[in-house]
Amino acid sequence: MRTGLGRGLDVLLGQAPPPVAAAPTSGISEIPLERVAPNRQQPRTSFPAAELQQLAASIRRHGVLQPIVVSRTADGFELVAGHRRVLAARLAGKTAIPAVIRDDVTDRLELALVENLQREDLNAIETARAYKLLMETYDLSLDQLAERVGRSKSTVANTMRSLQAPQILQDAVVDGKISEGHLKALLSLDMSAAIAALGDIIAKGLSVREAEALARKLAKPRDRSEARQGRRADPELKATVAELRAALATKVEIVRGRKGGRITIEFYSDDDFQRLYELLIEAGRGSR
After folding, report:
1. Do 215 and 228 fall within a single domain?
2. How does pLDDT run across 118-171, given as a tens digit for each residue?
3. Measuring CA to CA, which of 26, 66, 189, 256 is 20 to 30 A from 94?
4. In the listed set 204, 219, 234, which residue is the last one of a domain according to the structure?
5. Which CATH number goes with the domain that contains 135?
6. Alpha-carbon distance 153 to 54, whole Å?
7. Would you say the C-alpha torsion 58, 121, 95, 81 has a positive or negative sign?
């Protein structure tokens, strides 16, 4: 079954793609690799060395089977799609690469996102950064972004939440030291506890379930009376949190103390902040 991402550019742009024959190109040409400049908006930043070496070995034996896509520049070409193939071809010792030259490309961001998201091998941080870039570039709300990338709103929001992690945790995901599941487990901790847990996860090779158990242990309230109080209030608190999440369409957390507490409302862009601000202001006016 094909997913929303598998439908390609039409999903990101919110419209049906033109027939292949209608896209003006100059056909497939062999162009010098030295004249191909990278796409400055390439969302993928990490290419595992083993993966590139494997592709390079295939290119040495069979050549580049799928042409890259480029657009003309004043002194050569700018890459639109095919970054990994370019890197592997250079590793394979190639000096030229087959390319489709498209002079009609006005927006390289969508095409770069399509190529990477369709392969679904971006890590969580790269995906979140791509979503954020798309949201900010086109002034999209979270609902609009989710619709365009063919994912549920909660999935997109949870992925973008990974950008709230300390940089050291984000780097660990990009470097392949921990998975998205590990990162989610660590997001519930404060920075010092999260960094300590990160060291244990890497050093001991903990699974995601083991990381979740470690996070629960580190986040456990020190005061037993506070823990008992939390358990007594739990059903009521859960219902309140669920009601607020439904009303605000975002993640809400409530933490109670002995005499008070705090409510945390998450937002994922300036547009999302403005939406929540207007909702809360309107609710305040209506209660007067």
Report:
1. no
2. 555 678 888 888 888 777 777 778 888 888 777 888 888 888 888 888 888 988
3. 26
4. 219
5. 1.10.10.2830
6. 36
7. positive
Measure the CA–CA gap between 51 and 73, rounded to whole angstroms.
30
Q: What single string gives the DSSP state of each residue in 193-244?
A: HHHHHHHHHHHHT--HHHHHHHHHHHHS-S-HHHHHHHHHHHHHHHHHHHHH
Q: Is residue 109 part of a domain?
A: no
CB 271 within 8 A of CB 141: yes
Each residue's pLDDT tens digit, 236-248: 777 787 778 777 7
Instruction: Let me know: does 77 contact 101? Beta carbons within 8 Å.
Output: yes
- The reply to whether 37 falls in a domain is yes
The answer to whether the pTM exceeds 0.70 is no
Please tell me whether residues 213 and 235 are part of one structural domain: no
Query: Could you tell me if 204 and 176 lie in one domain?
Result: yes
CA–CA gap between residue 171 and residue 129 (Å, rounded):
13
Instruction: Give the domain range for residue 44.
Output: 25-103
Q: Beta strand pairing status for 76-81 and 36-37? A: parallel
